[in-house]
Design the sequence.
């Protein structure tokens, strides 16, 4: 069921292995009308000239990808769907262009950063095989990037070693109290 005043677009993020996708799936399944936009898939659309999005040389590519994600999310939200965008959405790289595009389209936005201990994230990511986001160095770097959110620290949700169900419960509480708005 969709909650009263619930923002139509939630940007759900955190380090690789924190449980973003599982939490997004549970959260979306609990709504009458929802869409789960998986940001990583939009990176896969680039056939030639792709740069790993956490590398400095990706600064030209990333805003293009964020606009495409925002356009898709805005279309679902405009259709009345509670929309969860799940991916690595770091402040300073991804959050602002995504938030601004959605806001310009008239959609309120919430931003939630799931946090778990580095060991938990690394173990979960390692179980995925050899993809770049399973690399322990990449996991640690991105985990560190989410460790200090500066002015966005209030958007962090510490889930410890909790399950996706537990993370979803904490997230729903924060969505209801409005503390995740950006």
Sequence:
């Amino acid at each position: 069921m969709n909650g009263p005043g619930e923002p139509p677009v939630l940007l759900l993020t955190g380090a690789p292995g924190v449980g973003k996708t599982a939490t997004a799936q549970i959260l979306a399944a609990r709504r009458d009308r929802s869409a789960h936009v998986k940001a990583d898939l939009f990176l896969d659309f680039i056939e030639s000239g792709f740069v790993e999005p956490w590398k400095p040389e990706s600064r030209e590519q990333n805003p293009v990808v964020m606009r495409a994600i925002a356009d898709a999310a805005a279309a679902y939200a405009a259709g009345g769907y509670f929309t969860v965008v799940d991916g690595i959405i770091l402040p300073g790289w991804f959050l602002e262009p995504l938030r601004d595009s959605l806001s310009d389209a008239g959609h309120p936005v919430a931003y939630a950063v799931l946090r778990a201990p580095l060991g938990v994230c690394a173990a979960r990511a390692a179980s995925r095989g050899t993809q770049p986001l399973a690399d322990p160095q990449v996991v640690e770097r991105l985990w560190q990037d989410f460790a200090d959110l500066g002015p966005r620290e209030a958007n962090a949700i510490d889930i410890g070693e909790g399950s996706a169900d537990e993370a979803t419960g904490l997230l729903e509480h924060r969505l209801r109290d409005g503390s995740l708005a950006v």
In short: Strands lie at 9-14, 34-38, 82-86, 109-115, 156-158.
